[in-house]
Amino acid sequence: MNDIWWQTRGEGKCHLVLLHGWGLNAEVWHCISEELSSHFTLHLVDLPGFGRSQGFGAMLLEEMAVHVLKQAPENAIWLGWSLGGLVASQVALTHPERVQALVTVASSPCFSARDGWPGIKPEVLAGFQQQLSEDFQRTVERFLALQTMGTASARQDARALKKTVLALPMPPVDVLNGGLEILKTVDLREPLKAVQVPFLRLYGYLDGLVPRKIVPVLDALWPQSESQIFTKAAHAPFISHPAAFCEALIALKQSL
């Protein structure tokens, strides 16, 4: 069984595992890793098949969580952005004893719109899957542009994300398709009611992929969790608002 790419830095007593989103890799955390490594021991991860974690095919969410757990510290705050939020949530559901706190960033327990639930229209995700096989790089770039749309620094933020993608080998099409399949099909709304660990959910007010309408719905569904919305951020608040983002994590650490 292959090992995934994993880097540990910083010397804080509190461990923080950072899981990136679809199509990307751990380089997305570049803008906040220096600040965070003075407060935490950081664990930077490339999810299976992405970035430097080569040699993996498409996976189910449960399989992805198993691979990430293999190298993880015994106890840590698990933070997942977008698709990574589903992986971190899955770890909290199956191995709560390993999770000091769960943080999801611009993530939804159910990314796909269904039965009155706001989300990405399934046909949009299906369209991305079809386009991937036709024009791989352009499809990934379009998805990245969607993530920063609406923010004051949208162009700059999209450039930062694109640079992250292009800095490392592109994931194989089947891995990208597998990730889209997770976004299209997984629904953790009910299971996450049972999570007992401290649970912080961070959102961007302008996010076009995870609509802010879900925030009050989840506040009611998961009263044990807390939510925070960055008013001028979109899908990547840690890139557009790094200082405020780090403050939220440091405050969480202090509350544990």
TrEMBL record:
Domain AB hydrolase-1, chain residue ranges per copy: 15-242
Localization in the cell: Cytoplasm
UniProt cross-references to SUPFAM superfamilies, sorted A to Z: alpha/beta-Hydrolases
Catalysed reactions, semicolon-separated: 6-carboxyhexanoyl-[ACP] methyl ester + H2O = 6-carboxyhexanoyl-[ACP] + methanol + H(+)
Keyword Transcription: no
EC class name: hydrolase
This protein's pathway: Cofactor biosynthesis; biotin biosynthesis
Catalytic residues identified in the record: 82, 207, 235
Residues annotated as binding substrate: 22, 82-83, 143-147, 235
The EC number(s) this enzyme carries: 3.1.1.85
InterPro entries assigned to the protein according to its UniProt record, in alphabetical order: AB_hydrolase_1 (IPR000073), AB_hydrolase_fold (IPR029058), BioH (IPR010076), Carboxylesterase_BioH (IPR050228)
Membership in a protein family: Belongs to the AB hydrolase superfamily. Carboxylesterase BioH family.
NCBIfam families, per the entry: bioH, PRK10349.1
PANTHER family cross-referenced by the UniProt entry: HYDROLASE ALPHA/BETA FOLD FAMILY (PTHR43194), PIMELOYL-[ACYL-CARRIER PROTEIN] METHYL ESTER ESTERASE (PTHR43194:SF5)
Name this protein carries in UniProt: Pimeloyl-[acyl-carrier protein] methyl ester esterase
Native source organism of the sequence: Citrobacter sedlakii
Lineage: Bacteria, Pseudomonadati, Pseudomonadota, Gammaproteobacteria, Enterobacterales
